[in-house]
Amino acid sequence: MMEKIRVVIAGYGNVGRGVLASLRNNPDMEAVGVVSRSPERVKKELTSIPVMPIGDSGAWLAAFRPDVAILCGGSKNDLPKQGPMMAKLVNTVDSFDIHTQVAEQHATLGKAAAQHGAVSIMSAGWDPGSDSVV
């Protein structure tokens, strides 16, 4: 029996909702929880999965035991702070999309992930991502 990849979703706006829907269609992955700055708001909408405050990392790391966090915050205000903070805790994937700041974010995120021994994949998706390579 294959072990599922345990995923915590960080942020539950439009991107977080899409990530949860996608995870439910991937049998090798399991959404184990959502972390949010607004957990009470998210709990009103989402009753099928546990929700915890993103700032209480000790509690959600222990409760969810994630293999990876998919960061669903905005590139302008959320990911520059959230990415390095989360990379010190767990492997991360994000869709950072401010082209002019990718190199700077890469350096900051890489340093934070290296300190933890984590892997952080950034700018994953279509643009930047696959489209940028093309």
What's this, in brief?
The chain has helices at residues 14-23, 39-45, 57-64, 79-87, 102-116, 126-133, and strands spanning 5-10, 29-36, 51-53, 68-71, 91-93, 120-121.
Q: Which short descriptors sum up this protein?
A:
134 residues, alpha/beta, six-stranded parallel sheet, 6 helices, 6 strands, 43% helix
Q: Could you characterize what this model shows?
A:
This protein is of the alpha/beta class. 43% of the residues lie in helices and 19% in strands. It contains six helices and six strands. A six-stranded parallel β-sheet has the order 3-2-1-4-5-6, sandwiched between helices. α4 (79-87) links the parallel β4 and β5 (91-93). α4 (79-87) packs parallel to α5 (102-116). The relative contact order is 0.14.
